[in-house]
Each structure stands twice: as C-alpha cells, then as structure tokens.
C-alpha cells in the first residue's frame, strides 16, 4: 500500500537538492522552512521505499515516519525507534555519511533489533 504524501515531491526534491548543494557551506545556513521541507520529503521517501510499520524514525521537531516491514506496532512506545537531528538525517539520506559513522557521532538514538537503516540509505 502506497503511503499518503503530504509534501509535493517536486518541492520536496528541490528543498533536498538545496540542502545537498548547501551542505558543504556551513557559513550559509538554509532557512528553517527549507530544512523542514527536505526532512519531511526524505522521511516520506524512506516510508515509500521501505514500507512497513516496525521502525519509527523521528527527526524532531520536523517529522516522524514508520517504515520497514515486520511486526506492526499499535500502542505505546514502538519497540524499534531511531531518533536523530535533522543535519545527521539529511546527511544520511544524501549519502554524505554512512549509518555506522552517524551512530558513532553519538547523536543517533537507535533502540530495538530492527533499528538499523543502513540497507535503506542513501535515498539519492
């Protein structure tokens, strides 16, 4: 079953491309709405490529999605949760950093047996 997209794919891809092009220029920060659009677009893209409900990926304060096939979670805190900041999430989605390196930063909280996105990333 295809996910219901809330972000226009063309606008989301444009925001993500802006982030990729700007990632090496730390002095020039992107506006918060562009970062939010890029995060939400990439979360939707992940959910569409790895459909399922066994892992919850959280990128506060911008968005959350469920993905990866497996046992369905319905109540309370999911058993497989990944939470990370936007800059790490976008770097993973763009292939600028690998899963192991992202986890090694200490900024990625991943709990549960299925809380590993290495097979699903990068998205580009």
UniProtKB/TrEMBL annotation:
<dbReference type="InterPro" id="IPR036527">
    <property type="entry name" value="SCP2_sterol-bd_dom_sf"/>
</dbReference>
<protein>
    <submittedName>
        <fullName>Sterol carrier family protein</fullName>
    </submittedName>
</protein>
<dbReference type="InterPro" id="IPR041629">
    <property type="entry name" value="SCP_3"/>
</dbReference>
<feature type="domain" description="Bacterial SCP orthologue">
    <location>
        <begin position="32"/>
        <end position="123"/>
    </location>
</feature>
<dbReference type="Pfam" id="PF17844">
    <property type="entry name" value="SCP_3"/>
</dbReference>
